[in-house]
Amino acid sequence: MSLTGKVALVTGASSGIGHATARAFAEAGAKLVLTGQRPERLADLSARIPDSIYLPGNLADAGLPAELLRAALRKFGRLDIVFNNAGLNHDGTIEEIDIDAVCAMVRINVEANFRIAYTVLKHFRRVDEGHLINCSSVMGTKVRATAGAYSGTKYAVEALSEALRLELAGTGVRVSCVQPGLVTTELHRESKIPPAIERNIERPLRAEEVAALVRLIAEQPSHINIARLLLLPQDHRI
Hints:
This protein is an alpha/beta fold. It has helices at 16-27, 39-47, 64-76, 99-127, 148-168, 195-198, 207-218; strands at residues 7-10, 31-34, 52-54, 81-84, 130-135, 173-180, 183-184, 205-206, 228-231. The protein is built from seven helices and nine strands, in the order βαβαβαβαβαββαβαβ.
């Protein structure tokens, strides 16, 4: 199915998977509402997508989800797809972990994710159509030493996604969850050792590869919901 005429909101569109997914959606014909914390990058992306607007902000701001919904309705008159993607990563040993950084991660990965989800789903329920696609991680299904806090945030996304899917089954509203393995993005820019080297992964996923599958989820006919999609580098032993 084409996304022509559809309006999609992408969070975390400044870089990585969000940036690539915005471009993939635009190539499929969608109109875009973009948000992220780096205005100059959003402006550059929006300039290359004719039917798009951008609204920079920190999703930890409780008022931003409703503002994004209003912006979509004001500009385009509708909202059809939400890629709930913004996220942070912080891990480390017990001795080196920064608790403040962990709490900041929880605010974005859990609180902001939940706020976006419930805000747009209230709207989708009123119009009885719409598709929420949450970006989780393979770490939402597994854990590894030093990454328990990050995994915990993604487990929370998994739990909410499944509960919402069950609640909305039989309506015109779909909830999906994509679970990428290691992707080469700026998410790991603070890592002392690049994760691909640390985990001996020769070919990590590229953001564009994940975006192509997010687009695939969004393009399904309304009677089909890809509830979960786990994608891993072939040499990712996890």
